[in-house]
Amino acid sequence: MIEIKHLYKRYGRFLALNDFNLKVNEGELFGFVGSNGAGKTTTMRICVGLLKADGGEVLIDGEKMLRNHRKLAEKVGYVPDYFGVYKSLTASEYLHFFASAYGIYGSDADRLTDELLDLVNLSHKKDTDVNGLSRGMKQRLCLARGMVHNPDILFLDEPASGLDPKARFELKEILKNLSAMGKTIIISSHILPELAEMCTSVGIIDKGHLVLQGSIEEIHRAAAMSSPLNLVVNEEQIDDVFAILQSNPFVQKVTARGNILQIVFTGSKDDEGRMLASLIRANILVSSFYREEGSLESLFMQIVGNNTKEAAKRR
Ligand SMILES: Nc1ncnc2c1ncn2[C@@H]1O[C@H](COP(=O)(O)OP(=O)(O)OP(=O)(O)O)[C@@H](O)[C@H]1O
Ligand SMILES: [Mg+2]
After folding, report:
1. Residue 293: predicted pLDDT
2. Using CA atoms, how far apart are residues 146 and 140, in angstroms rounded to an integer?
3. Helix (H, G, I), strand (E, B) or coil at 222
């Protein structure tokens, strides 16, 4: 299990991580989602020992890690969001190079390289120059590189960005296999639905702080509740409708676009029914009453959307 406790990180006067807390259980495929600049890369780089924190601790199986670089390096693997340029190295040589960094040479390195290339479906590109690999293949080679020392926990920073649907599917299958091998995987993205389809649990980071965490089922439930109710009424009755809605304790917010009202509603399905009944009783001509689709996106926007202007100002 990996626990991140009260993590702080400053870049000059800018507070990039602000009391960041997170717990990920063994074997989980955890989706780490946040907008550009939310603090995903910063968190990951601290967790793998590439960046120093200004406060807080990272614990693996209860053991403090931030001052124990050697142990940390054994336990974690990191796949960054960029791919360095390695001129004139084949895929196989590239992995041999990283194996040697961990003291693995000779036939052991040959065997390991073959296994890793097989794991990421790149055996057929063994002798291809890395600069001649497609983006998706480079991404997978990078993943193999992160696995060279067989870490328990793997951090992948935006591995799916820029991949086509086929490459994304292949990546997902590889991650599922790694997960079945018992690895704990933490994967970042700025797209919640993309993570939701492959992860067992998800956390949302905003302005350097974890704002929501849950199993994928919990996130889907929260998403269903978060999407606004849409109500279409006769335009001349808008004022009456507003008065009725404002007296309903489950109505948090109403916005109008012409005769279409969007309602942030916190009640149950029955409460929804009772609100509709109250409108009908008041002779409001309701022509439509429905929930928005794309609810994972709306959940994400509801949580982080309001802060985008402020975040832009801070940067
Ligand atoms: N080396 C640095 N110097 C100064 N500010 C930095 C540095 N690295 C990151 N930041 C700032 O810290 C904040 C968090 O950045 P970080 O890269 O962790 O975000 P992110 O969630 O990974 O974003 P993205 O989705 O764009 O990759 C941003 O506002 C960024 O500008
Ligand atoms: Mg990043």
Report:
1. 61
2. 10
3. helix
Residue 91, amino acid:
A
Pocket lining: 37 vs ligand 1, CB cutoff 6 Å: yes
> Mean of the per-residue pLDDT values for the chain?
89
What gap in Å lies between CA 32 and CA 188, rounded to an integer? 4
What is the atom index within ligand 1 of the atom nearest the CA of 45?
A: 18
**Domain 2-223 is of which CATH architecture?**
3-Layer(aba) Sandwich (3.40)
Ligand nearest to the CA of 34: 1
Residue among 241, 250, 247 nearest 282 (CA): 241
The answer to whether 86 touches 145, Cβ cutoff 8 Å, is: no
Residues 37-92 have pLDDT tens digits of 999 999 999 999 999 999 999 999 999 999 998 899 999 999 998 877 677 899 99
**How many beta carbons lie within 10 A of that of residue 208, not counting itself?**
23
Q: Is 47 in the pocket of ligand 1 (CB under 6 A)?
A: no
For the chain, residues classed under CATH 3.30.70 are: 228-291
Phi-psi region of 19 (alpha: psi -120 to 50; beta: other; left: phi over 0): left
Cβ of 29 below 6 Å from ligand 1: no
pLDDT, tens digit (0-9, with 9 covering 90-100), for 283-302? 999 999 998 665 677 778 87
The whole-number average pLDDT for the span 133-145 is: 90
Of 190, 207, 210, the C-alpha closest to 306 is: 207
> Does the Cβ of 136 fall within 6 Å of ligand 1?
no
Name the helix (H) or strand (E) containing 176: helix 165-180
**What is the DSSP-derived secondary structure letter of residue 235?**
G
Chain CA centroid to CA 251, Å: 30
Asked if 288 and 230 touch (Cβ cutoff 8 Å), the reply is yes
Hey, whose CA ends up nearest to atom 1 of ligand 1?
Answer: 11
Distance between first and last Cα of the chain: 33
Instruction: State which fold the 228-291 domain adopts.
Output: Alpha-Beta Plaits (3.30.70)
